[in-house]
């Protein structure tokens, strides 16, 4: 291999490192503030050539570190309240276990088709933001265990957008603000991704190098996101446009249109 080829290869490696860290940083901020940051990291991992099911498993490394960092920061700031939440945590984790089991056994082409469909739904959710128009409906509290188990399953299966769904449900049932519910959401996501890391790791559906690079960015992004929690409204328009663009490109790629 001549020097020119070696140099070009090293440049590509450097680009991958930089892309992973930047994507992780943005995803960490977005995940901490609301959710759907996995749209960025999953899209990047598939762009870098990983099969979608491997990208799904790899994505959990960064999510683990980011949610761990954010949880610790929320705990330090005394914003994480877990009293009377044990049942909720148990149901979410139980659902996640089944989600990981199902996703890890799906053929890659089936998983990619499902992911493309999920991204279409997420495009509409990010565009129209229906969760922001939800009202407090206390009678839904009886369905809370079933709904949270379902969200746990989804988070174990794919994760992307799970934070948004989780916040929406907790807001409707408990009537609290998204900002006050954010610490609990981040902690639940941490537990789910511990399960996911173990599950996908056991079936070799994790690319550790890319995952650890994303983790560096997401850990930093998670800490930054905690500090930006009260400025959420001011930066949301920019983040929304960024996510919509990435979703659209990813959908076209998943369905082999580009």
What do you see in this structure?
The protein is globular. The chain is built from 10 helices and no strands. It has 258 residues and is mostly helical. Helix 2 runs antiparallel to helix 3 (52-76). It has one domain. Mean pLDDT is 85; it is low at 1-12.
Beta-strand content estimate: under 5%
The rounded distance between the terminal residues' Cα atoms is: 32 Å
SS-based class: mainly alpha
What's the number of helices? 10
Number of domains: 1
Q: What gross morphology would you assign?
A: globular
Give the beta-strand count. 0
Helix content: over 70%
Low-pLDDT residue intervals, each spanning 5 or more residues: 1-12
What's the structural blueprint in terms of helices and strands?
Blueprint: H1 3-33, H2 38-47, H3 52-76, H4 86-105, H5 108-128, H6 144-157, H7 162-174, H8 178-202, H9 208-227, H10 232-254
Helix pairs in contact: 1-2, 1-3, 1-9, 2-3, 3-8, 3-9, 4-6, 4-8, 5-10, 6-7, 6-8, 7-8
Question: What distinguishing features does this structure have?
Answer:
258 residues, mainly alpha, 10 helices, 78% helix, 0% strand, disordered N terminus
What's a quick, concise take on this entry?
The chain has helices at 3-33, 38-47, 52-76, 86-105, 108-128, 144-157, 162-174, 178-202, 208-227, 232-254. By secondary structure, the protein is mainly alpha-helical. Helix 1 packs antiparallel against helix 2, helix 3 crosses helix 8 and helix 6 crosses helix 8 (178-202).
């Amino acid at each position: 291999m001549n020097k020119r080829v070696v140099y070009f290869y090293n440049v590509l490696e450097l680009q991958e490192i930089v892309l992973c860290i930047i994507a992780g940083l943005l995803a960490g901020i977005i995940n901490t503030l609301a959710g759907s940051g996995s749209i960025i990291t999953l899209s990047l991992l598939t762009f870098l050539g990983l099969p979608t099911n491997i990208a799904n498993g790899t994505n959990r490394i960064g999510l683990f570190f980011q949610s761990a960092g954010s949880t610790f920061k929320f705990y330090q700031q005394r914003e994480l309240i877990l009293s009377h939440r044990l049942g909720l945590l148990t149901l979410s984790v139980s659902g996640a276990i089944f989600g990981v089991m199902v996703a890890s056994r799906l053929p890659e082409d089936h998983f990619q088709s499902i992911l493309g469909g999920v991204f279409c739904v997420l495009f509409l959710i990010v565009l129209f933001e229906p969760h922001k128009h939800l009202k407090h409906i206390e009678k839904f509290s009886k369905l809370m265990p079933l709904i949270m188990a379902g969200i746990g399953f989804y988070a174990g299966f794919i994760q992307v957008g799970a934070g948004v769904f989780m916040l929406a449900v907790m807001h409707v049932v408990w009537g609290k603000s998204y900002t006050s519910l954010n610490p609990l959401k981040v902690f639940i996501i941490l537990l789910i991704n511990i399960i996911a890391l173990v599950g996908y790791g056991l079936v070799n559906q994790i690319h550790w190098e890319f995952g650890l690079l994303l983790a560096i960015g997401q850990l930093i992004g998670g800490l930054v996101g905690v500090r930006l929690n009260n400025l959420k409204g001011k930066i949301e328009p920019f983040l929304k446009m960024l996510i919509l663009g990435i979703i659209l490109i990813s959908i076209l790629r998943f369905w082999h249109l580009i």
